[in-house]
Specification:
The complex is a heterotrimer of chains A (355), B (263) and C (304).
Chain A: H1 13-16, H2 23-43, H3 46-72, H4 80-97, H5 103-122, H6 130-150, E1 163-164, E2 168-170, E3 173-175, H7 178-200, H8 203-213, H9 215-220, H10 225-252, E4 254-255, H11 262-275, H12 280-303, H13 311-332, H14 336-350
Antiparallel strand pairs in A: 1-4, 2-3
Helix pairs in contact in A: 3-7, 3-8, 3-10, 3-11, 3-12, 4-5, 4-6, 4-10, 5-10, 7-10, 8-10, 11-12, 12-14
Chain B: E1 11-22, E2 25-36, E3 40-44, H1 51-58, E4 66-71, E5 74-76, H2 81-86, E6 89-92, H3 104-110, H4 120-125, H5 129-147, H6 163-176, E7 181-185, H7 193-210, E8 213-217, H8 221-227, E9 230-235, E10 238-243, H9 245-250, H10 252-259
Parallel strand pairs in B: 3-8, 3-9, 6-7, 7-8
Antiparallel strand pairs in B: 1-2, 1-4, 4-5, 9-10
Helix pairs in contact in B: 3-6
Chain C: H1 3-36, H2 43-59, H3 64-87, H4 95-117, H5 134-140, H6 146-168, H7 170-180, H8 182-187, H9 192-218, H10 223-227, H11 231-238, H12 243-267, H13 279-290
Helix pairs in contact in C: 1-6, 1-7, 1-9, 1-11, 1-12, 2-3, 2-4, 2-9, 3-9, 6-7, 6-9, 7-9, 11-12, 11-13
The chains are: A mainly alpha (355), B alpha/beta (263), C mainly alpha (304).
The complex binds adenosine-5'-triphosphate (ATP) and magnesium ion.
Chain lengths: 355, 263, 304
């Protein structure tokens, strides 16, 4: 009987508008933040921080970006990785060519560049919908990949096309250990996730969902379709762009187009399908699921005595399992893990006296 | 309420010689209709007569090939629906067109869209000016919710509501925009008697309390005769009558159209 | 004829003929979309899966024709399975959910295909040379690959066969009824599920043919499913529901991408190379801005 809403009467609209109206939820969030900010950096080793948690966070950010566009605004995109690439290369080039700028500003500007590119590719969304739009975003994906592979200026004419990311210095502090990179990523992701949550429960979020659910009535109530869709493309791509910059700087350590190919776009798409379309929480759950599952598989294989799996066997297995899971979730729980979580919470609210 | 008690004002919307066709289908032929301030105008006619198309022309969803619409002193042929919304025209649809994935409250809040001003950066911050604005508009929406007596379902996703309530929520969304001109496409279709009575009362109250001008399409003649100040009749895309309910009821063309006399 | 002009025609023909292969994949999309409203993203993976299976069966020592039959059988079983397991439970879901399910399906098929038959590149020899056809070279003085001609022939036979099937058989009739109006077809007692399974099987057949033709040119490997994605811009040009559109769209995409590749990279001195990867998509995108309904589609004003 710990998790209860009863007795907590909301006496004002202000209280009702709070992000977590239930006190227990607020406490849980505080605990979670304390764990990820304080406990994890102390107990987790380099491998967990650098190879699991950091990429997990970055992909969560990309998933939030895609969720804004696809989950909230209803515009299916297969170009996520393309917009991430724009962010990555923008951050690299800003750092290289305008060294005066602080790195954080580079990251944010990288997001802005990605937003602009996203909006350009969002322009056709006024005239086309659904599958047609998906193909348009595929154009973005392939075009952007090609630009960064073939236009030498972006890679500073490096011969291999793979450049190592320059060291990160933020306000005089060099960020180079796994813990520091993890914390930097965590701060960025936490702040941007909060901002996303705030947007989706404000006017702009409602306008996205309105366009998603019934575009004609959205327009009739005064919501301009093109501007709204473009705002979704822009803000979504901003998130993807920042994620791309973090991916190169905090995780990979290299800047290369190959890190942002079509399969990355699908990976992020799968995250939101499994995590929950139209849910910020779901973006995290989905990213966690997709990042952790292969590791779990490998460990299971090791346990039952096959040793670690060969790379291509592993890849095939992942394909089969993810493909199967996507179909499974779409059939059984189209709202993904986020909905399961919500159902569990509702059960808990009634426990131990269900009625 | 009779016409004489109410202050019916000047013409606020004038449609001149509107013609609209889809490929080979002529939906509207040379139709002219005036709407006067504060009145309730009913548009009636058999199925496929072009009633919905007429509303769609008025608020810019369809763009007629010929003719013009004059509203608030501006004459235009085609205007984007979101622009007409800014000029105070709101509407409901024949087939419910709510935002299915959103709660009742959020649906009604979208009605406030054009009146809210904070940009997305404030919204990302949420607290401060944005929260103040959200609360202000929430209060307006709560008044609409009270008015329509849907307090107990405000947090329910609209997809789960029964049909009659959905129609009511759709009216709420239009009302939240505080429109000058309200277009209602068959607001009572598919309702039982009790629900119809409620809906009639809401429509009359809106007209009465806020002075909102209303154009509505309705098939139920009893309702039409009861609540409208004026009735326009369409048949095969042409206007065949326009006048007080009593006049229209006595009109031979109208009787023929409804009895299906061969054309 | 000047040699420049000859060269232009060679590029053009090469492009048109390879465009036919895009048309083939696009045809698979159109069949399924028409009959079930599903945008089957997995069509490309079906191409890969079919080619892998065929090569795999050949490698087991089965002769060509029986292998082809066996492979066809596999594709049909696959179609029935997809209908049962994926489509039927999702019948009333929004189209976008079905679309995402087919993305999942494409992953599943790629994983399965490569898991069963291996990931290495396989050669597939259909016994047709990919060399300039001598007869044409003598007659017209331009070089056109025999293999391209052969695949054009295959495509023509396939399209002809399908046209006969849809126009002359009872099943075909039912299929067209379903494509016109699902509800009405259900009302007159056409079993939707059977029709869907048949359409998916037909799409499987098309995928098999495309897989063999492409596989023998490029080698049977994962990238086949990416090449097959180029059928998407073809669909945008031609419209999702038009067989003629798929064919014409394929030709346009094939020809324009080859011309663009050759001429743009020569004009820019090779600075702009490998634009084949995105050119068809951009072309389709620009086209969409002008004619959102596609080449053969009609403009529809949404009813409210
Ligand atoms: N978007 C559209 N595309 C094609 N034809 C249309 C469209 N909208 C309306 N029509 C046609 O225009 C004519 C008038 O339709 P409309 O919906 O205006 O009739 P209505 O009077 O509202 O009928 P109902 O009482 O059935 O609602 C009909 O023949 C209809 O088929
Ligand atoms: Mg109507």
């Amino acid at each position: 009987m710990l998790y209860r809403e009863s007795g907590q009467f909301k006496t004002s609209y202000r209280a009702d508008q709070a992000i977590f109206p239930i006190r227990q939820d607020r406490i849980a969030l505080m605990v979670l933040l304390a764990v990820v900010f304080i406990l994890v950096p102390f107990v987790a080793d380099e491998y967990w921080l650098g190879s699991i948690l950091t990429p997990l966070l970055v992909l969560s950010l990309a998933a939030i970006g895609l969720n804004i566009l696809t989950g909230y605004a209803g515009q299916l995109s297969l170009g996520t990785a393309g917009f991430m690439a724009v962010g990555a290369f923008a951050a690299y080039n800003l750092n290289l060519r305008v060294p005066e700028l602080p790195l954080i500003v580079d990251f944010l500007l990288a997001g802005v560049f990605a937003a602009l590119v996203g909006m350009v590719f969002g322009l056709p969304s006024l005239r086309i919908k659904g599958f047609y739009l998906a193909v348009a975003t595929l154009a973005a994906q392939f075009f952007i990949e090609w630009v960064f592979t073939h236009v030498g200026w972006f890679t500073n004419y490096s011969s291999s096309g793979v450049i190592s990311a320059p060291p990160m210095v933020i306000m005089g502090v060099t960020v180079d250990s796994a813990v520091e990179k993890y914390l930097l990523t965590l701060v960025m992701v936490a702040v941007l996730a909060l901002a996303a949550k705030n947007m989706v429960r404000s006017r702009i979020g409602r306008s996205w969902m309105a366009v998603r659910d019934k575009d004609v009535s959205a327009e009739v109530i005064g919501i301009p379709l093109l501007a709204t869709k473009l705002s979704a493309f822009g803000i979504s791509s901003f998130y993807c762009g920042v994620a791309g910059a973090l991916w190169t700087y905090c995780y990979l350590g290299t800047v290369e187009p190959a890190a942002f190919d079509l399969s990355r776009s699908f990976q992020v798409l799968f995250m939101i399908i499994i995590g929950g379309v139209g849910s910020i929480l779901g973006s995290f759950l989905g990213a966690g699921f997709i990042v952790l599952l292969p590791i779990l598989l490998n460990n299971i294989a090791a346990m039952i005595g096959h040793g670690t799996l060969q790379a291509d066997t592993m890849a095939n297995l992942e394909h089969i399992i993810f493909g199967g899971l996507i179909i499974f979730f779409l059939i059984v729980e189209p709202h993904g893990l986020a909905r399961l979580w919500q159902i569990a919470k509702e059960k808990l609210r009634l426990w131990p006296f269900p009625y | 309420m009779s016409v004489s008690e109410k202050q019916i004002g000047d013409v606020i919307l004038r449609c001149d010689n509107i013609s609209l066709s889809f490929g080979g289908v002529r939906a509207l032929t040379n139709i002219s209709i005036d709407v006067r301030e504060h009145e309730i105008l009913a548009i009636i006619g058999p199925n496929g007569a072009g009633k919905s198309s007429m509303l769609n022309v008025i608020n810019g969803v369809y763009h007629p090939q010929e003719g013009s619409v004059t509203y608030q002193g501006q004459t235009r042929r085609a205007m984007k629906p979101h622009e007409t919304a800014r000029h105070g025209i709101a509407r409901t649809f024949q087939n419910i067109a709510l935002f299915k994935g959103m709660s009742v409250l959020d649906n009604i809040m979208t009605g406030r869209y054009t009146k809210m001003k904070r940009n997305f950066l404030w919204q990302a911050l949420y607290v401060g000016p944005n929260l103040k604005e959200e609360i202000e508009h929430r209060e307006v929406c709560e008044r609409v919710i009270d008015f329509l007596q849907i307090e107990n379902i405000r947090k329910t996703p609209v997809g789960r509501l029964p049909y009659g309530l959905q129609k009511r929520v759709e009216l709420g969304r239009a009302l939240a925009a505080e429109p000058q001109l309200l277009l209602l496409d068959e607001p009572m279709a598919g309702m039982n008697v009790e629900e119809k009575e409620d809906m009639c009362r809401f429509i009359l109250d809106v007209n009465d309390e806020f002075g909102t001008t209303i154009v509505l399409i309705e098939h139920d003649m009893g309702v039409v005769m009861d609540i409208s100040d004026r009735v326009a009749v369409l048949d095969y895309g042409k206007k065949i009558a326009d006048g007080s309910p009593a006049e229209v009821r006595a009109n031979q063309d109208v009787i023929d159209a409804y009895l299906g006399v061969a054309h | 004829m000047t040699s420049d002009l000859n060269f232009f025609f060679e590029v053009l023909f090469g492009g048109l003929l390879s465009g036919i292969m895009y048309s083939l994949v696009a045809l698979g999309f159109v069949l399924i979309y028409k009959a079930s409203g599903v945008f089957n993203f997995a069509q490309g993976s079906m191409v890969l899966f079919a080619a892998l299976t065929f090569v795999g069966i050949l490698e087991m020592g089965v002769p060509f024709w029986p292998a082809l039959l066996l492979c066809l059988l596999v594709m049909m079983l696959l179609a029935v399975g997809i209908e049962r397991i994926v489509l039927r439970p999702l019948v009333n879901q929004p189209p976008i959910a079905l679309f995402m399910a087919t993305i999942g399906l494409s992953y599943l098929l790629e994983g399965l295909g490569q898991g069963i038959w291996g990931t290495q590149v396989r050669a597939l020899d259909l016994g047709i040379e990919d060399l300039p056809n001598e007869m044409i070279q003598e007659a017209l003085g331009i070089q056109v690959s025999t293999f391209d001609l052969f695949s054009a022939g295959c495509a023509a036979v396939l399209v002809g066969g399908l046209a006969l099937f849809f126009n002359k058989t009872r099943v075909g009739l039912a299929l067209r009824a379903v494509a016109d109006d699902h509800q009405a077809a259900l009302a007159v007692g056409i079993p939707l599920q059977h029709v869907w399974a048949i359409v998916w099987a037909a799409a499987g057949l098309v995928a098999l043919v495309a897989g063999l033709l492409w596989g023998s040119r490029l080698g049977v490997q994962f990238s086949l499913s990416l090449v097959a994605l180029k059928a998407l811009p073809v669909l945008i040009l031609g419209g999702f529901t038009s067989v003629a559109g798929a064919i014409v769209g394929g030709l346009i995409i094939g020809a324009s991408e080859k011309l663009a590749e050759v001429y743009i990279s020569t004009f820019t001195g090779g600075a702009v190379a490998a634009i084949e990867n995105w050119f068809p998509y951009m072309l389709a995108l620009l086209f969409l801005l002008v004619r959102p309904q596609g080449l053969f589609g009609e403009k529809i004003i949404e009813r409210v």
